[in-house]
Design a protein that fits this description.
This is ABC transporter permease. The structure is a single chain. By secondary structure, the protein is an alpha+beta fold. It has two domains: 188 residues, no CATH class; 212 residues, no CATH class. The protein is 54% helix and 16% strand. It contains 13 helices and 14 strands. Strand 2 and strand 3 form a beta hairpin. The chain is elongated and about 100 Å long.
Length: 414
């Protein structure tokens, strides 16, 4: 029998034991669905993360104060750094922009758990109020859906104007335009001049629950001088970014009057640092997906081996007839191996289709609809390869056992 005849014989055997084949293929299907589904979901979410960060560019960095969060090092409480004051941020901006032709944005958080009101409606106390300048939106990857940006005139006159996040707009103005309406924010009236496009919550959930006011308006709430101002910087060329960050560090140390023997009283965080951290996390998720799929497929392969052993026992007389007609042990082994591989491939194809669908659905919901439809050809190839390997692993011993049957004893089998 050639390869084609072996495959056809395997399909005929599968057809004659349809229920058993369906149950076995279903076990394989679940294993492949777990493998392809988890990895497809990770690919889709990774694509959404990349989209979220693509507007930031690899040539930007932030200067801020390290958050201590009460952590201790070797039993000692870490020293709490003084905030970056407004005059320090302005001084850095003037010095750094002049030397490097850079775009610099200064911003601060006036409140991170604010409640805002519109007429009789009120939001949850989870709105982030940020004081920004005219460069903030571009450097942080925000896009305006409607309206305009905060202008220098708004800053100079501390105008009571606000840009609201997409989630805020959907809550208060689901069926109308927000522009021109008045919100009550931090005890004062603000006129809405813009609405942000949806950014998604892949990085933590707060990017759409923001309201942006002019930087100088936010400064008015800093009655005790405790606000810390953060600086976001973008340079034209990323090739010498390490050198530029070193220069920024030097300028900021001078502005902050850090002593030569002291560590930096601030930290510099590259815009692509978080993306690299997320890529590392997705790497761990892939390993976890492989582990879950391996356990599922191991159980499936054991079940398939058991079923193939039963099949070999039931077809003892058939094996005897084949051997009596001249079939070699190699042909007998090949027949049962191909049968096991065909069962695995049938389950694998169904599992790949379900895995792609399930993975994309999970990616869609976890990325707030930002994830695009993904067909992971590399994982599909892996799925088919795993099916063949499982078929070989599960079918080899039953096939080997069948090939060793004595034809005379097999013909006597009842």
């Amino acid at each position: 029998m050639n390869l084609k005849e072996n495959i056809l014989e395997g399909l005929r055997s599968i057809k004659s034991n349809l229920l058993r084949t369906v149950l076995t293929a279903t076990i394989i299907m679940f294993g492949i669905t777990a493998l392809v589904g988890i990895l497809t979901a990770i690919e889709g979410m990774q694509g959404s993360v990349n989209k979220s960060f693509e507007g930031l560019g690899a040539n930007s960095f932030d200067i801020k104060i390290e958050e201590q969060n009460g952590r201790r090092m070797r039993g000692l409480q870490a020293k709490r750094q003084n905030p970056i004051y407004f005059r320090q941020a302005i001084k850095f901006k003037d010095n750094f922009s002049e030397k490097n032709n850079a775009i610099v944005s200064i911003y601060t958080y006036a409140s991170q758990n604010e409640t805002i009101k519109f007429e009789s409606q009120k939001s949850n106390p989870n709105i982030v109020v940020t004081g920004i300048d005219e460069n903030f939106l571009g450097l942080k990857g925000y896009k305006l859906l409607n309206g305009r940006n905060i202008s220098k005139i708004d800053r100079n006159y501390s105008n009571r104007v606000v840009i609201i996040g997409n989630e805020v707009a959907q809550k208060f103005f689901p069926n109308s335009s927000p522009e021109g309406n008045i919100l009550t924010l931090m005890g004062e009236k603000y006129k809405i001049v813009g609405v942000l496009d949806k950014k998604g919550s892949i990085t933590g959930g707060g990017d759409d629950r923001v309201v942006l006011i002019p930087l100088e308006s936010a400064r008015n709430y800093d009655t005790q001088g405790r606000f810390s101002y953060e600086i976001s910087t973008s340079v034209p060329d990323a090739t010498d970014l390490e050198y530029i960050i070193g220069e920024a560090t030097s300028i900021m140390r001078g502005v902050r009057e850090d002593k030569v023997t002291d560590d930096n009283s601030f930290k510099i965080e590259r815009s692509d640092a978080l993306l690299k951290d997320l890529e590392e996390v997705t790497g761990y998720l892939r390993i976890g997906g492989f582990g879950i799929s391996f356990v599922t497929l191991l159980g499936a392969s054991i079940a398939l081996m058991n079923i193939m052993m039963v099949s070999v026992t039931e077809r003892t007389r058939e094996i005897g007839v084949r051997k009596a007609l001249g079939a070699s042990p190699t042909k007998i082994r090949l027949q049962f191996l191909i049968e096991a591989i065909v069962i695995c491939l049938l389950g694998g194809i169904a599992g790949i289709i379900l895995g792609i669908g399930a993975g994309n659905v999970v990616s869609y919901f976890f990325s707030d609809g930002k994830g695009s439809f993904v067909i992971p050809w590399n994982w599909i190839s892996l799925g088919f390869s795993v099916c063949v390997i499982v078929g070989l692993f599960s079918g080899y011993y039953p096939a080997y056992k069948a090939s060793k049957f004595d034809p005379i004893e097999s013909l006597r089998y009842e």
